[in-house]
Each structure stands twice: as C-alpha cells, then as structure tokens.
C-alpha cells in the first residue's frame, strides 16, 4: 500500500495547481476512485472481482486481507492540507468521516462489481438514499417515483420533501404513460426500485432510461433486490444505483449499511451530503461488508437454486393460491426477467389460501425460516406484509399495490432446498391437521 494514495485526481501535485494545468482544461475528466494504487481486476471474472477487488494485504505484517483501520483521524502533512485547499480532500485520508482505508477498500470492490467509476458507503440504506436524492436535486425540485416504494423512501418523498420545498408524484411502475405524464417542468429525477417489494415487479429499466434521456432528467434506482450478479443497472443506462447493503451485498444479517455507485462526477456530488448528514460507515462495518461481498456470487447461486426449487413446490401446493417468483414462467414479468436478470434471487412471495390468519398459522409452524424483517441473509427469513413492512397501510392501500390477504414474503437463504421443502410440508400438514381437530 502506498504511503500517499493518489487516485481520484491522479495529477494533483500541489495545493494550487496540477500537472499540465488540469484545472484550466475544459476537457478535464475525473478519474475513478478514490481507490488505492495497485492492481485492478476489472477485466477478470465476477467471482475473481468479488474476492480481490479493493482487497489489500497488509504490507507491514503480511496479513492476507485488508486490515481494519480503526482510526478516527490521520496525520496531516503538506499533501493533506493541499487537498483541502485544492478541492480534492475526498482523495486523501484526513478524518474517518471524510474517508478511511477500510471504506476505500470496500468502495473499490462495490464499484468494480457494479461496473461503476466510483462508490460511496453509508451507515444505512436510508442514509444512502437520502444523501443521494438530496444531492442530485435542488430546492423546488419535483421527483417522479414508484408508488410501491420501500417505506423509508416513501416517507422521504411524502414527509420530508414538502418541508424542504420539494414534491414527488408516485406512479405505478408498470404504467409508462403515467410516468411520462407525471413529469413536470421542475422534475429533476425519476426514482424506482428495479424489483419491487414485496410483489416482485420487474421494472422496465430500459424504458425508464429512454424516458429519462428524452426529458433530460436523471434516473436513480434502488437495486437492493437485484445485486450485481443478478443485474447491473448502470450497464442499462441508469445514472446512479443504490443498495441497502445490509441485505444481499453483505449477506450475513450482521450489519446495517448502504451504498451508492455511479459516475465519479455524481458520487463526488453526494460525498459532501454524507459529510453534512453524518452517515459514514465505521471501519469495522466496512470490514464485515467487504468480507460478505467476497462470497456474493456463490451465495447468489445458492439463493437462486433453493428459491427456484421452493417456488416450484409452493406453486403446486393446494394450500397456496399463487406464487410470485420472476424466474417462473407464471410470473407476469418472466419475459422481462429473462431479458434483464442474469439469474434469480432468493425472494419468493406467495399467497396462502385462507388469508392473513392462515398465513400467520403457517409461519408459526415453520422451523427453519426465521420470523424477521430484512432479506438476503444466508438464513431464510419470513414475514407477512400486513403486520410488518406494510402494517401502516389500510387493506385497500395494500390491495392497490398487489398485497392481497395471505401474502407471505420469503427470503430464501442458502439452506438445502430439500430441507426447506420438508419444513414447509410439515407446516402445511400441521395446519391442516389442526383445522380438522378444531372442527
């Protein structure tokens, strides 16, 4: 590891100038990063990138893997002072809220996996969403967004925006005509989730890209349900991609984090908001996230394998009304999923006959899936939208976004599919036997 990491603006050499007059050149371009000097693995396989991108062996001890740089501040010298005066403080280590070697390591890995010039990590997914959205719009701005957003994002647009002198129109993510009709002269952003929660709509990202370009506004997407092995939205023309890294990216249900990735120019605009709002990710959490990312490709294959088998089983069970899993031909967006998704995920939504109380009974008889919020962990997690993620909605509001009675949200882990199927079978049997006994 070099003593003075020089990335971001690799030409900066003094507080007030750069080689070849970089500051005064109209054709200047930001470099990728900030990353450490060293090898790049951008042209290698996805699993190789997941393991090696951003990871640095300790030069002092020879320890394999990036150390945890549990430091709040760093020694200042001429280069650091100059970076502040010259406007490239993001590319130097000054204070851990500004940047830390542990952050740089995981940010390089995330940027590589997303095919992005730059990435920035946050203390939560909502910190990433809030900082990114507010960095890319101005006072008086209008945003067009999906009507079935994650609850925290919904609250940002409906509760926080009005107090900030901004507004948002929420539209069915399927209705492209309504999306375009909602665009106003002051619209500055389209904001959508690439796969919605919990009914797993696969949004037509290429069509949204075309609309955004035609109206010269930015398209920002939340790709939490579709991590890089599944989809890389930036390759489809999206301007910025955001994740709750607590989910699939980390994969072990042991940290809260968020990430935004995209062109260096946009990420540099977001970085000051990270500083202002204080949502930086601590070094130990960065270490855990980098560790989790190393197994992302093989975890996603295991998620897909078990989820596909379980979804097929549920689809044939007489106690199940219907199943939503994009990789099944029965899903309304199956053709689009095959076009946009490189593989499936672990998210399966299904509807139990008998409504919410029947679904609750089923959940209470399961032994392997844990009753918990969140998703993307190695263990299967199960919840009912009516009493968890969409509990604040009325039944009419839930029905409007496809959450009918008996809806179950299942995040399939990496357990053996045969064991999960056997567990569901015994739970269905227990419910049936109990109903017969009660009768």
Give descriptors for this structure:
5-stranded mixed sheet; 13% strand; 14 helices; 37% helix; Aspartate Aminotransferase, domain 1; alpha/beta; 439 residues; Aspartate Aminotransferase, domain 2; 7-stranded mixed sheet; 2 domains; single chain; disordered N terminus; globular
Summarize the structure.
The chain is of the alpha/beta class and 439 residues long.
What does the model show?
This protein is an alpha/beta fold. The protein folds into two domains: 23-294, Aspartate Aminotransferase, domain 2; 300-438, Aspartate Aminotransferase, domain 1, CATH 3.90.1150. 37% of the residues lie in helices and 13% in strands. The chain is built from 14 helices and twelve strands. The protein has helices spanning 46-52, 78-86, 101-114, 125-135, 151-163, 176-181, 205-215, 264-277, 283-293, 296-316, 334-340, 355-365, 395-400, 417-438; strands at residues 118-122, 142-146, 167-171, 187-193, 218-222, 240-244, 258-262, 320-324, 347-352, 370-371, 381-383, 407-411. The strands form two sheets. A seven-stranded mixed β-sheet has the order 1-7-6-5-4-2-3, with helices on both faces. A five-stranded mixed β-sheet has the order 8-9-12-11-10. Helix 12 (355-365) packs across helix 14. The N and C termini lie far apart (71 Å). The relative contact order is 0.11. Mean pLDDT is 91; it is low at 1-20.
């Amino acid at each position: 590891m070099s003593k003075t990491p020089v990335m971001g603006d690799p030409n900066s050499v003094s507080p007030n100038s750069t080689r070849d007059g970089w500051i005064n050149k109209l054709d200047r371009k930001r470099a990728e990063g900030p990353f450490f000097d060293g090898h790049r693995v951008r042209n290698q396989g996805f699993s190789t990138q997941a393991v090696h991108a951003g990871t640095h062996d300790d030069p002092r001890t020879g320890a394999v893997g990036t150390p945890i740089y549990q430091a709040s501040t760093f020694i200042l010298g001429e280069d650091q002072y100059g970076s502040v005066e010259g406007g490239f403080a993001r590319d130097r280590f000054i204070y851990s809220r500004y940047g830390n070697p542990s952050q740089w390591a995981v940010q390089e890995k995330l940027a590589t996996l997303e095919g992005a010039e730059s990435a920035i990590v946050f203390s939560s997914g909502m910190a990433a969403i809030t900082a990114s959205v507010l960095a890319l719009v101005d006072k008086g701005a209008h945003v067009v967004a999906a009507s079935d957003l994650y609850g925290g994002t919904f609250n940002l647009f409906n509760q926080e925006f009005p107090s900030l002198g901004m507004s948002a129109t929420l539209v069915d993510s399927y209705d492209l005509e309504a999306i375009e009709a909602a665009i106003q002269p002051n619209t500055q952003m389209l904001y959508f989730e690439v796969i919605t929660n919990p009914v797993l709509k696969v949004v037509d990202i290429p069509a949204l890209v075309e609309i955004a370009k035609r109206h010269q506004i930015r398209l920002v997407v939340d790709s939490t349900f579709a991590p890089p092995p599944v989809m890389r939205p930036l390759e489809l023309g999206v301007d910025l991609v955001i994740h709750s890294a607590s989910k699939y990216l980390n994969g072990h249900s042991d940290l809260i984090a968020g990430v935004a990735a995209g062109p260096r120019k946009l990420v540099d605009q977001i970085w000051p908001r990270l500083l202002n709002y204080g949502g930086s990710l601590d070094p130990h959490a960065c270490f855990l996230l980098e560790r989790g990312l190393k197994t992302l490709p093989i975890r996603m294959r295991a998620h897909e394998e078990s989820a596909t088998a379980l979804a097929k089983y549920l689809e044939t069970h007489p106690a199940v009304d219907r199943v939503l899993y994009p990789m099944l031909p029965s899903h309304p967006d199956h053709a689009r999923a095959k076009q946009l998704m490189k593989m499936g995920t672990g998210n399966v939504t299904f509807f139990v006959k008998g409504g919410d109380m029947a679904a609750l009974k089923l959940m209470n008889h399961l032994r392997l899936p844990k009753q918990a919020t969140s998703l993307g962990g190695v263990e299967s997690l199960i919840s009912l939208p009516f009493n968890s993620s969409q509990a604040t909605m009325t039944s009419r509001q839930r029905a409007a976004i496809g959450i009918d009675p008996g809806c179950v949200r299942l995040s399939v882990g990496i357990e053996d599919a045969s064991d999960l199927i056997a567990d569901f079978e015994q739970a269905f049997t227990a419910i049936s036997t109990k109903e017969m006994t009660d009768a």
